[in-house]
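Notes from hallway chat w/ T.B., transcribed later so I don't forget. T.B. wanted the structure written out for a chain they're using in a teaching module, and asked if we could keep both sequence and structure tokens in one place. Agreed to drop them here.
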Amino acid sequence: MKKGFTLVELMVTLSVIAAISLIVTPLTIKIMRDSKQKLYETQLTNIKSAARAYMVNEELQEGETKTITLEELSLAGKLEKDIKNPKNGELLVDCIIVQVKRENDIYVYDVIDKCE
């Protein structure tokens, strides 16, 4: 009696493995894409927080707008240098600006991504 697997057994095994990979691969890609998007949103929130800390000693007149770059936040020590976009790996330094506007004695912070 010979030992080993028959061709049918090998084909069934390969078919099961292929079916599992067809199910798992798209789910894995979606999870990775979603986690990169969440990290990107977290970075934007951190940038907005850094802009708030930067503006503590600054005062704007009613209706005045100030634009803050990531380089300014880095030089002021409010933010790390060389922040990368997790979605594409490129540096955000030239892409992101924060616009601060004073409206009705409230400071409104808008983070703008010029590269998207």
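Follow-up for T.B.: The CA atoms of residues 68 and 98 lie 5 Å apart. Might be a good example for the class.
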